[in-house]
Amino acid sequence: MKLILRFWREYASEHKFSYALGILFLLITNSLGVLIPKLVQWSIEAFERGDNAVHLAVALLGAGVGTMVVRTLSRTFIFNPGRTIEYSLKRELFAHLLRLPRAFYESNMTAGEIINRGTNDTAAVRGLVGYGSLQLFNVAMTLTLTLSQMVILDVELSLWCVVPLIFASMVLRWAVLKMFYFHRRIMSQNGVLGDRILESYAGVSLVQLFSAKSGVEARFNKENTELLNLSERVQMIAVWALPIVSVIGNICVVITLYLGGSKLRSGEMSLGALTAFIVYINLLVSSLTSLGWLTGAIQRGYISLGRVYEVLDASLDRAEVTERLPTCDPRGRGLEVRGLRFTHPTADRETLKEMSFHAHPGEVLGIFGLTGSGKSTLLDVLSRTYDPEPGQVFMDKVDITCVDVNAYWREIGYIQQSPYLFSQTIQENILLAESIEEQTERSPQRENRLQRAVESACLADEIKSFPLGLNTKVGERGITLSGGQKQRTSLARAFYRDDLRLLMLDDVLSAVDHKTETRLIRAIYERDPRCTTLIVSHRMSVLQEADRVIVLEEGELIDQGTPNELIKRGGQYADAWRAQNDFISAEDAQQFDSSDDHHCKSESHREERS
To answer: In whole angstroms, how far apart are CA 38 and each of 27, 33, 41, 141, 167?
Structure first.
């Protein structure tokens, strides 16, 4: 009940006038519905007396037309709020999902389950506040008005008919409880099946290349069969339980004909009254049948409402906003980390351990470490993808956990190791931070800014080769682009923004060739000097131009200094630098030997030909 009251307060109450009008027209509809059997009774009695009943026929026709009109109005005023509420739920659900931290997605619901709650469940809530509300009031009014008219016509006959109807209500109650259980399982199974479809679609290339079609189909068929079995159980209950109500209604008609016939012969009841009583029984039975379908709609809507609120109530898990970032220094913003400790939500031990360092305004800080040393996790924490504990990370001496996260995100750019592109055009992916109106705006300044971002990211040549240029669609997750093109498109997204004060790059040059890497390094290091840059890489060529480098190992900061200091000091960074230099030297020598050997063979061939 608390859930319904909360829903009424937050969403439905603003439509109370529409509901009031709908209920008013519904009351008129049911009043006319109850009046029609009375008109039938009076018409039959007039025929029996030999009176003229034309005015009653006209009244009967008018009642029928009036019922049609007011029924349409009642549905309009009650159904329309359901559409509006569904729209509001979807909008708020989507906005809340965009604000939730990554930990929610890693430890709670799958993508299929989230999509199911945003589509099927919100539609079921619309059914609850639309069809469900309409039928709830309709059934309540019909039962009340019909039973009262039956009692007015004949108390004894009404009591005889109520007994089997009580049995029908008990059957309905049992059916409702069973259907409630299975509806809940169906909702959950829909999410499982949706997730299975999304996984298969996202990995369709892998499925085809590894000939895994039969296994994927088998897993899908298993979940689909489970959903089919649950749906069949619900239908089985509906098929067997609801017709019982109709059968009991027919029994009531038989009772009425038997007992009413006796009263008709004895003169205790007129033929018109008996006919009206039978019509009332039919109205009563149809209401009880509607009650069965109504409970199904209410069950689905109530369960779905709870599932939607589970997402809306998911905690953002962020500290209260108490401070604002100070006005940015002309040199940029500084970053300081003090004793940072962090445990990944899915891990059972610390990922980062007592880490302390700083990055001065406008400085380029390199981050180096072997695989699993915590580099990406460190950037995740600094970007507030995961929030650190208060008192551990500061920007311009302000604790970042005390700052509004949206204000913080407006000042930072984070290009992750695996770039994500939306299935839109290259230009729309680069202009991701802009609204649709801003993206369609045409101005020389904006066009020049976009062109500079593309050139800085070394994308200009590729874009020129595309038939549609920047308007080329990249496909699902950028499937039509190579790994290097995806990385450079993500870099262009960061280069386009001129308001960044902290840029974090997580191994974003791993898929580009040496020549392109050299140009990109120059673009990164020569970018806006007011932007503090943190760059993670395994390549010494990327880190050698950094102002300072910190070295991580198993979540700990084991060394820091300028690149030359780290090389002279020895250790992990120096070993990697020597290994990469030796490899490059050997590769160059091999290329030289190969070209020299090719030159000698060419000379030999020329001598032979001579």
So the answer is: 17, 9, 5, 17, 28
CA–CA dist 594, 602 (Å, integer) = 12
Query: For the segment 577-599, what is each residue's pLDDT rounded down to a tens digit?
Result: 888 877 555 555 454 454 444 43
Same domain, 235 and 359: no
Chain center to CA of 54: 61
Number of domains in the chain: 3
Does 215 share its domain with 79?
A: yes
Query: pTM for the whole thing?
Result: 0.73
pLDDT at 331: 75
198 in the same domain as 117: yes
Phi, psi of 188 (to 5 degrees): -65, -40
Check: CB of residue 589 under 8 Å from CB of residue 576: no
Which tens digit of pLDDT belongs to each residue from 474-507? 877 777 788 888 888 888 888 888 888 899 999 8
Cβ neighbours of residue 108 closer than 8 Å, sequence gap 6 or more: 314
Residues 103 and 206 in one domain: yes
The answer as to whether 399 is a domain residue is yes
Closest to 499 in 3D by CA, of 561, 449, 557: 449
- Which residues, including other chains, have CB under 8 Å from residue 523's CB and lie 6 or more apart? 456, 457, 458, 495
Q: What is the CATH number of the domain that holds 454?
A: 3.40.50.300
- Which helix (H) or strand (E) element contains residue 366? strand 364-369
pLDDT tens for 186-233 read 878 887 888 888 778 777 767 777 778 888 888 889 889 998 999 888
- What letter would DSSP give residue 280? H
* Segments forming the whole domain that contains residue 258: 2-312
* 302 plus 332 within the same structural domain: no
